[in-house]
Design brief:
alpha+beta; Glutaredoxin; 6-stranded mixed sheet; 7 helices; 10 strands
Length: 230
């Protein structure tokens, strides 16, 4: 049951929480600054992606923008449908491309399924975000989201860890185009690092019940594709 108190009592406790929220905001700003200060790695692999506009290179995916966000969407070559959890995240991205473009940034989805499969699923979901197929490239493996076999215990496993993985996993990678046209990798994040991207999660975090996932078999057991909720 809720802990019901007077408005004065509530306000007193709310102000204490506000100070914690302000400290968190300052810490998050400092973390974002540190993230931007990371060095970058030049990308020299000549990736070729299948797109609705024909085959494209990684630099092509920037279009006329300086920065590129690639969401690694879990969709294996033989899968019948895209990952429900990744679909949940992409629902939260729809409509933001114009705002990102205003800050010189492009957003694309990338998966290892054939392009025709991705396009059919994109139409089903009603998304407009560009989606490219990285099938028959090492893109997913190189950026730590695709593991055709169990990863070696060499620190190159999912989320920079040691645990061996097999199959597909989610992530987001950030790329920057230099003035001479070269492309550099500045950042990637995985697992819980993706939470900040999900507006629905951030809204639920403001409610008394929060995400209400503690008693589930796994955190996102409740998530369905948006056309599958009863």
């Amino acid at each position: 049951m809720p802990n019901l108190v007077s408005r004065e009592n509530w306000l007193s406790q709310r102000l204490k929480l506000l100070e914690k929220e302000k400290n968190f905001t300052r810490d998050r700003d400092a973390l974002s600054h540190a993230r931007r200060d990371l060095p970058m790695v030049e990308i020299t692999t000549p990736y070729r992606f299948a797109t609705v506009e024909g085959e494209k290179s990684l630099p092509d995916l920037f279009a006329d923008k300086e920065q590129l966000l690639v969401y690694h969407f879990m969709y294996g070559p033989e899968w019948e449908s895209g990952c429900p959890s990744c679909s949940f995240f992409v629902d939260n991205f729809e409509g933001i491309e114009t705002h990102l473009a205003a800050r010189n940034t492009a957003l694309v989805l990338a998966s290892n399924a054939p392009l025709a499969t991705l396009e059919a699923y994109r139409a089903r979901m009603g998304w407009t975000i560009p989606w490219v197929s990285a099938l028959n490239t090492s893109f997913g493996e190189d950026f730590g989201v695709s593991f055709p076999t169990q990863a070696d215990m060499d620190g190159n496993s999912y989320n920079y860890g040691k645990k061996p993985y097999a199959g597909e996993s989610p992530g987001l990678s950030v790329f920057y185009k230099l003035n001479d046209g070269r492309v550099a990798h500045s950042y990637s994040t995985y697992g819980r690092g993706l939470d900040i991207l999900n507006g629905a999660y951030n809204l639920l975090d403001l409610t008394p019940n929060g995400r209400d996932e503690a008693d589930l078999p796994y955190a996102q057991a409740w998530v369905r594709r948006h056309d599958e909720y009863a």
